[in-house]
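Suppose you are handed a protein chain with no further information: no name, no annotation, nothing but its sequence. What can you learn? This example shows the usual starting point.
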Amino acid sequence: MILNLNIQGKGLPVLCLHGHPGSAACMSVFTQHLSSRFQTLAPDLRGYGNSPASEDFTMVEHLHDLEMLLERYEIDRCLIVGWSLGGILAMELALKFPERVQGLVLIATAARPWGDHPPIAWTDYVYTGLASILNRLYPGWVWNIDTFGKRSLYRYLLQQHTPTAYQHLADEGMMAFLQTSGVADRALRQALSTRYNRLADLPQIQCPVLVLAGEADRHITAQSSLETAQALPHCEWHIYPNAAHLLPWEIPTQLLADIDRWIDQHGFAEITDQATNNL
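A reasonable first move is to predict its three-dimensional structure. Written in structure tokens, the prediction is:
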């Protein structure tokens, strides 16, 4: 399947993979920043955003789609930034194409993901709907955040209920939710039902890896992210206090600074410079 794709910048390709529900637009916090030094490629995965899917599929087909993308754009080496589901796909690509994947940035994800999300009540859906509609109309409205947002399901996705985080929910999150298809939802549920676990294979990933997690993540716990980090041979990890699953929208400045430092530490910007000089 040919995926809808957002490309920005020039240099070493950085493949930016969103989570569930999600879209390429949800990765803008990364693409807008990294495209000043690299070429960022942010696809809508199959069944998400503007990459529609009408028939049921399995998670393996996401990998086939991404392999086609790499072939179409003749990408023989790249970095991958993956958030949640996107991080799982990033690890799968690194296992399948070790010669292509130069480094991984894994955010709120795990090779054996588990959560500790509490049961959801009907009032959670009511407050989430009200908070989302009002936030779409009046992004970052503090009254809405305090009245409905902190009582909604957002309380499990965020620790810092800031206007900035709610602006991202209004600009990117709500449309991503609405554009996530039922077949994409079923594909993910089917994969989770098999108790996905790639921990034993992680020592095969020899490239540098950066793992970032929110301490209060209820969807993919920080403990499961740490377990993944400890199984990777060349991994640096950070667990951020007072942050949850949507930490790129809660603490973007801190995350981007840590990613920049890791990129510079491993000389990925120099790969871009060498490629430019060889043109």
